[in-house]
Amino acid sequence: xxxxxxxxxxxxxxxxxxxxxxxxxxxxxxxxxxxxxxxxxxxxxxxxxxxxxxxx
Length: 56
What we know:
Blueprint: H1 8-18, H2 22-52
Keywords: Membrane, Transmembrane, Transmembrane helix
Transmembrane segments: 23-45
């Protein structure tokens, strides 16, 4: 019995690691930091509204 092997798994792993470079990590960091900024901004406004009211 002769079984022929292929390099499909090896090629797929190379393609997947090719796109995970520093540009992708930088983009994910920017998205994460932007989300954190807006969550912090939302929490600060909620705290201010509960402390001072809505100003009506």
